[in-house]
UniProtKB/TrEMBL annotation:
Keywords: ATP-binding, Kinase, Nucleotide-binding, Serine/threonine-protein kinase, Transferase. Residues 1-21 are annotated as: Disordered. Residues 61-257 form the Protein kinase domain. It comes from Aegilops tauschii subsp. strangulata (Goatgrass). It is an enzyme of class 2 (transferase). The keyword Kinase applies. PROSITE patterns: PROTEIN_KINASE_DOM, PROTEIN_KINASE_ST. GO terms for molecular function: ATP binding; protein serine/threonine kinase activity. PANTHER family: OS01G0588500 PROTEIN-RELATED (PTHR45621). This is non-specific serine/threonine protein kinase. Transmembrane segments: none annotated. It catalyses: L-seryl-[protein] + ATP = O-phospho-L-seryl-[protein] + ADP + H(+); L-threonyl-[protein] + ATP = O-phospho-L-threonyl-[protein] + ADP + H(+).
Amino acid sequence: MSAPNARQSQGSSMSVITSRSTNGAGNISAAFLEPEEGMILEVPNLRIFTFAELKAATRNFKPDTVLGEGGFGRVYKGWVDKKTMNPMSSSVGSAMVIAVKKLKPGSSQGLEEWQCEVNFLGRMSHPNLVRLLGYCLEERELLLVYEFMAKGSLENHLFRKGGSVHPISWALRLRIAIGAARGLAFLHSSDKHVIYRDFKSSNILLDTHYHAKISDFGLVRNGPADGDSHVTTRIMGTYGYAAPEYVSTVHVQVTCT
């Protein structure tokens, strides 16, 4: 059984950078093509989706497309064209599967975590970080669009959650652990010394080939700067997974993940 969730959100002083084409549809910059490995962009490089586009991509958010649910809302399976990112039917050969996180409207915590995802994950490119493809901000609707991780979370495999989940070998477990560690090391070694704060098996997702990718950047923040050794903040994350020194002192360092 996983540790009880005790997540809290943090405010974000960063604004969401958006762009919109003249016909109202979200546009894709030339830099949308896969950035080089281990790169942090100056600004978020994301597709801006309309609510109608994501509604069509998920078949009107049908119950049978639900991938998961949490306090933030639901995650749906959707389909878009590989090149244009426009919504399409799953039966078409050029369709690409996506995961659409639809946050509960009117939640201040949801808005703060949504901003963190866009402003942090939207600027990062690394093989061991889940790729954020785009977002929707339309009236009270907040949605995030990710690459689809076919094998689900590491937690599901470790605790055999779901009828189709099978045990994974020790060799594969080691490979997954190394992959997740590489993603975390990239965050820690970046210029911003990014502090993740919620490193746990449910936030490590696996693609078709069981490559590990860190997901859920709602609690991320920049690390200490100007020679400081730590940042003082409220305790956030999940009890049982947070670093003991962070819980006891409320001083968070890069090594506190």
